[in-house]
Design a protein that fits this description.
Layout lengths: L5 E2 L14 H16 L4 E7 L2 E14 L5 H4 L8 E12 L8 H17 L6 E4 L4 H8 L4 E2 L6 E4 H7 L2
Parallel strand pairs: 4-5
Antiparallel strand pairs: 1-2, 2-3, 3-4, 5-7, 6-7
Bound molecules: coenzyme A.
Amino acid sequence: MNFLTVTLTGLHERESFCCGNAQLDIYFQKQAKQDIKRKLSVCFVLPDGNKVKGYYTLSSASVIRAQLPEDLIKKLPPSYTDLPVILLGRLAVSQEYQGQGLGETILMDALSRSYQVSLQIGSMAVVVDPIDQAAIKFYEKYGFIQLPDSGKMFLPMATIAQLHG
Ligand SMILES: CC(C)(COP(=O)(O)OP(=O)(O)OC[C@H]1O[C@@H](n2cnc3c(N)ncnc32)[C@H](O)[C@@H]1OP(=O)(O)O)[C@@H](O)C(=O)NCCC(=O)NCCS
C-alpha cells in the first residue's frame, strides 16, 4: 500500500508550520517528535521538500464499552469492556494549503494506514478528539459519529474497510 505521507523526521521544518490553531501548531513544533521517540504516537507529514503541508498523529487507544452507541454494543461480546481502537489524535493542514482538498487527502491517508494496522492488530474503529466545532463539522462530513458524553467521534473500521474494497 502506498501512502502520501511519511513519518516526521528532524529534516522536516516544524517551526514555520501554522494551521491557525495554536494548540495544534505548538504540538507540532514542540512535542510531536518527542512523542514519536517515547512511542506515544506517530506523526505523519505530507511533505513539500522539507516543508510540511499537513500532519496527523496515530496512537493505539481504547474506548469504554458504555460510551458506544446502543446498536453497536449489542453486537459485541460482553467480555470486551474496553474496545480497541486507533486514535487519530491530531490532524492539521498548513494555512497556505487549506481549501485545496489536502485535509481530505490526509484524512484518507490516515484511514488507510489505520485499516492496514487493523489487519494486523485488532482495532474496531478510528476515534478522533475534535478540537472545536469546525473540526466536528469536518469529521461529520466523512461519516464520523459523536460518542455520547466523551466529546470523541467514531468511525467503525467496518465502514473504512468498505472504502478499501
Ligand atoms: C480542518 C482542516 C484540516 C481542513 O483542511 P483543508 O485542507 O482546508 O480541507 P479540505 O480542502 O480538504 O476540505 C475538505 C472538506 O472539508 C470542509 N472543511 C474544511 N475546513 C472545514 C472546517 N473548518 N469546518 C467545516 N468543514 C470544513 C471543506 O468545505 C471540504 O468540504 P467540501 O468538499 O464539501 O467543500 C484545516 O482547516 C485545519 O487544519 N484547520 C485547523 C486545525 C483543525 O481544525 N483541525 C481539525 C482536526 S483536530
